[in-house]
Amino acid sequence: xxRLFFLLFLLLASPAFASGLxxxxxxxxxxAASLSxxxxxxxxxxxxxxxxxxxxxxxxxxxxxxxxxxxLYRHRFHFRTEPADxxxxxxxxxxxxxxxxxxxxxxxxxxxxxxxxxPRTDARAFTLLVGYQGCADKGLxxxxxxxxxxxxxxxxxxxxxxPAGSEQGWSWKSLLLFFLAGVGLTFTPCVLPMLPILSGxxxxxxxxxxxxxxxxxxxxxxxxxxxxxxxxLMGLFGAGLNLQARLQSAWVLVPxxxxxVVFALAxxxxxxxxxxxxxxxxxxxxANHTRGGSLLGAAVLGVLSSLLVSPCVSAPLAGALxxxxxxxxxxxxxxxxxxxxxxxxxxxxLIATGGAAWLPKSGxxxxxxxxxxxxxxxxxxxxxLSRVLPGPATMLxxxxxxxxxxxxxxxxxxxVKAPRQRLAQLLGLALLMYGLACWYGALNGQGDPLRPLPAxxxxxxxxxxAATSAAWQTVTTPAALDAALAEAKAAGQPVLLDWxxxxxxxxxxxxxxxxxxxxxxxxxxxxxxxxxxITESSAExxxxxxxxxxxxxxxxxxxxxxxxxxTTDRVVGEINAGEFAQILTxxxxxxxx
Length: 593
What we know:
By secondary structure, this protein is an alpha+beta fold. It folds into four domains: 45-166, Thiol:disulfide interchange protein DsbD, N-terminal domain (Immunoglobulin-like, Sandwich); 177-364, no CATH class; 389-454; 464-591, Glutaredoxin. It has 21 helices and 15 strands. It has a five-stranded mixed sheet, covered by helices on one side. Strands 5-6-3-9 form a four-stranded antiparallel sheet, with no helix packed on it. Strands 1-2-7 form a three-stranded antiparallel sheet. A hairpin with a 3-residue loop joins strand 1 and strand 2 (59-66). The two termini are 52 Å apart.
């Protein structure tokens, strides 16, 4: 059981978890996995939600909400009016997250909530045409999109897009993560030893049966509801300040990151975070005079315990509140902290139903859990700083964090150790190697902690692999594609169809690193190679996306010699050369090639 909770916290402290919470900047090479269909991607209007939140005589305020895992390009925004003689002022678009791409150079992108203000100089009613483009972190790029908003004259009214409060800032995945974090917070040296005392006060010996369950629920639900109120208030506070938009600034990101560092130091035991002594004494007096064993008494104790959180809980809770205030989502913040409270109360429910024997015993391992939470908070701080720091600088910080944890685990302590300590040392050595890889990658200009080492040198323009790329036939219209497919069918040739666009970063990655890879090149001769270029994103081209049930490039489709698509083998989004070579082998086997 102890190992289970230790592994749980190692999982929570991983960079993937931290980047999911903070919507870290995307990488064109992330999520390189084989996707057989569009199930892993949202339609464009669900991935990017546009609403008109203000329209008065002077200003139009638009709000974009990019779903987790999706981002918008700053340079792809454009605004037009119908009729065209209605002029607008220069849009005020906040500074975005810096992103360097080897194909497109330095660009700015936006995750989460983005507010754009447009000065209005004409009181007449008109239609606002809003153009934008975004991508998914997994590698799919959507074609440029245009939405129409009806703007009333004089008296402002919301347009035809989604209403301002309709965006959903939470998901079942995020609620589950907060619930698991709440369970994990229970297994700290300040909390777990208090569970028997707490259960004695709340239950008064009434363990088991409906009465014990009712008393524990009377304690847990008000505690979780109190946390939910805090989450809602912080969400409203963040929405009022528009922190999500302001978080593009280093003046906000750096202090936030420093807060997380302070919280981490508190978890490492350098100091304690507590309520002011006077307030703490008053709340303790109320708690001491509250009788347990009754539903009302248990409810009062639940509310008070949410205010009298221990030092082990205060730092992570403060970090969660800080994160929620940045999201600006009151409903999502309330639900997330409610889930956190339920997780913290789950062990008490287990005790109340007679399952105390399932809980692990106290011991030194609790300090390991506490330190793991501190590491997670440091990872969140680095995730925040990564939005304003260059990629190599972020890699250096990740390397220092990994190396620090490695030294703490005794990676360089070559003395006689117990078997369990040897396993910890082995993990430390792995982290130390990862830290060294991050430092090496940073010195070579790398910026992705999940791929710290530079990619191997690819074939030059004069190599056989590059020469083979000339075998691709590029078409730009549905009619030309239909004709090419019909010609291949008549000749009895199977087809590999590549969906491509100049504005698609992942398409460039696939073209250079996948289709030119030796293990892929050796198998392409079995197919007729077609490339549909959707760079112009005309209405005619977009209709072809609908016909093939695609959201955008990149995509790789296979057609048998009889002209039918092999839908179970299609690839949507980014993929690496090794995985695509395996798919090619499987498809060739099906076709008998």
